[in-house]
Amino acid sequence: MEEGLSLRTVASLEDFIKTFVKRSGARVLSEITLDRVRGFFYEGKERYQWSYWHYVNHRKYLKKFLDWCLTRGLVTSNPATKIRKPKKPQSLPRRLTYEQAQAILYASFNHPWRYPFERSRNHALIATLLFTGLRARELLGLELVDLNLEGSTLLVRAGKGNKDRYVPIHHKLRYTLGRYLEDRQRAGRTIPRLFTAVLQDRPLGYRGLGRVCRTLSRATGTKFTPHCLRHTFGSVSVEQNMHLVKLKEIMGHQDISSTMVYLRMAPAKLQESLDQLTLF
Prior knowledge:
Layout: H1 7-24, H2 34-46, H3 52-71, H4 98-110, H5 116-132, H6 136-141, E1 147-148, E2 153-156, E3 165-168, H7 171-186, H8 206-220, H9 226-239, H10 244-251, H11 256-264, H12 267-275
Helix pairs in contact: 1-3, 4-5, 4-8, 5-7, 5-9, 9-11, 10-11
């Protein structure tokens, strides 16, 4: 925790080190040679089919760990620095069409859920993802005190980069969340976390959110994840003329280049801008 790392990042580092020790065969620091490190990353890419981000994160974690060892004199070199970072793929993230997103939002309320509170909660979950573009971790970390319906804002605490930010609430989402809060109170939920389990007074977790998405994927015939809904929010916002700088702040991007990908995902908007030019 010396560098101000989040508990989640520390846990990921610990999991990585265990995986590295198991797969590389290195049992002591002196056995972490360049050949072992190269073999570990080659196996990850060829056998385990790591994605670009898996590869990059594993490289980052190993380099961070060995840098820590290096500063304390536990090793004499850091072989992770010899591992080249792969070229970032240029493929666009997956998004839904406007009609697909509408169908999923509709289904989240009209699906035959087992309990009335389950209907209200799941509708609020999907609506929040589609109307704010929050990451799954940010959504599940929201607490009651972070929601200000009168001021039409959500406070996202310790988002990516460990930064807080305020996210505006669309008037349609404000109504949905208001109804959810009433149903939440009737269901006897008292914990600080905004989104709770259906039958217990405990926070909703990643597995529960995943089950909701899988159920609605089957019901609508459109497979999606929470991150797919985030990209859908971003691209639809660009299509409807939201300024990129404002969208950057809402989505919590650290760099405007991350937000600009939504321009590439909205070719109709580029065509519209081109048609407005007086050329030659």
